[in-house]
Write the structure tokens for this entry.
Amino acid sequence: MGKKIPGWQVALVFIVMIVLLYWGVMVDLDAGEGHVVLLFACAFASIIAIANGYKWAYLEQGILAAINRTMQAILILAVVGLMLGSWVSGGVVPSMMFYGIKIISPKIFLFTTCILCSIVSLATGSSWSTAGSMGAALMGVGIALGFPAPMTAGAVVSGAYFGDKMSPLSDTTNLAPAVAGDTLFEHIRHMIYTVTPSLIIALVVYLVLGFTHSGGTADEALIQDILDFISGNFKVGILYLLPPVFVIVAVALKLPAIPSLIGGVVLGIPFMATQNSETLVHVPSILNYGVETEVPEELLEGDNSLIWEKLGSLLSTGGMQGMMWTISLIMCAMCFGGVVDCTGMMATLAGWILKIFGKSRGGVVTATIVMCIVVNALCSDQYLAIILPGRMFKESFEDLHLHPKNLSRCLEDSGTLTSNFFPWNTCGATMRNFLQVDSSYIPYAILNWINPLISIFYGWTGITMEKMSDEMYEKILEQREADKKAALEAMEA
């Protein structure tokens, strides 16, 4: 272990990281990537840490621990790549698009998209599974109905993260109360006060946008052309919807996510054979490298070329290898996040944020929300965005006699919901990959950015900010003393 890193050096590390990301993502537009610059930022942070007495072996352990926390997410990404290879080539995703275009009314499309993704995510507890299956299909429906891709993606993300936030099956929904010292169902009940107005506002906005944009660039003839294109390139039918139904039901029944997704892959393979009898010979390569759906040149040169280009992209997939860009980005981000976490740089930053907003009830809530966003941006992991601020501000909430459910709600209102805002974050990279959009969808992810604002408003006004009893606070003080005594005895031993 090294010494406490001076504040000016901590600030320098984060300034260098921001400058490097701006260079890699915004300036080098031909690449638009953060992989290498994140490794540069990690190297700079490591140099600062070593100069303050930290050994490389310790920093390496911090990096490996950070990467290890994301291994389940990385495995899910790889399996979803396989699943999309199976589902696109097997006609599953095309069938979902085909029936979605025929059934959903354009005027309520965005509203319906948000509701459908909310239901699926609430049942599965996974925003990733929802976006990778239902969300990918709805993107194609939106393109056909004339909606801009960022707008559709925003509705998908809002719905997907509503369920991820409120489902008892979600890992973050279980993690937040565990960190704050609350119980699961008390935590979920307390989140209703912030997420309900957020969802209502989002749905109203989606209705307004739906009525404003319905029709857009798509007319009846174009929609029919798209339906003919899908049915001409793939066999479609109700039976092709069995794989996504299986995955949703399997996860809803609390089966582990990865085996459930693998089941979706396997179930999609027979449907691949129905598209082309020769496909079975190439199953391994299709699952690994994906397939490409070619759009006729004349369509790509017409008035609706952008629509056809996007549709062709959504009906193509890179398979498991297509996910490797995202996986490598996550691992590079974890290298930097691991160093700044294990050396205490994030704790220093948290102290600065608390000083800025003060130690009042509203200040502590605001500091927690802001810190969650900062950790999502700098450490690139939603789990750290819940664990670190939860650990850092727990005593501040307790000393204000605020019930632990208030802290756990703040952690989810911001740590979970803003995780997809940053392209190099695990969730941000995943959403952009699954939905094939850039960051322009963020303004349309209404629920995700309005929920933290409502949480801050409640903090300053005191609305639903429940106090703990005197007896509960006394027990907390006793536990603190017991923990200090145990730590001293451990040091002496």
